[in-house]
Design goal:
Layout (H helix, E strand, L loop, with lengths): L3 E6 L4 E6 L36 H13 L4 E6 L6 E5 L4 H21 L15
Antiparallel strand pairs: 1-2, 3-4
Helix pairs in contact: 1-2
């Protein structure tokens, strides 16, 4: 879940750039209210608690809405990489699981968007993390 995403795909170059207040590269940035420095380090994000895990409330909102649309949520926590989270849901049969994947992605992307963030389902968008 990122705060900013930039993509360039042109005839002579292509790249993406993602940004998150959770990223260790934000240590020197200025933030409203100050920079408290609570961030997971590279490969240091598995199951931290607040304030290092800055996405607790966002994941909780996603989980509540997922349950409202009929998914049974089993877990939600920060994952290893900076700005990465996990929300687990109960599996179903093939058709139900396919429908649930669509609901899952839609809900997560919309909740992130409504909170000024961008949610991706890329497995590891941060190289080396």
């Amino acid at each position: 879940i990122f705060d900013d995403v930039k993509i360039k795909d042109d005839i002579n170059e292509s790249h993406y750039r993602v940004d998150s207040e959770e990223g260790c590269w934000s240590d020197e940035d200025e933030f409203e209210g100050g920079n408290m420095g609570h961030r997971p380090r590279t490969k240091g994000g598995y199951f931290p608690v607040q304030p290092t895990d800055s996405m607790v409330d966002l994941r909780a909102e996603m989980m509540q809405i997922l349950e409202q649309v009929g998914l049974e949520v089993t877990l939600g926590h920060h994952e290893v990489a900076q700005a990465q989270g996990e929300i687990g849901v109960v599996f179903g049969d093939l058709i139900e699981a396919a429908d649930n994947v669509q609901k899952y992605k839609y809900v997560c992307k919309m909740v992130a968007h409504l909170n000024g963030k961008s949610c991706t389902f890329m497995p590891k968008p941060l190289f080396g993390d």
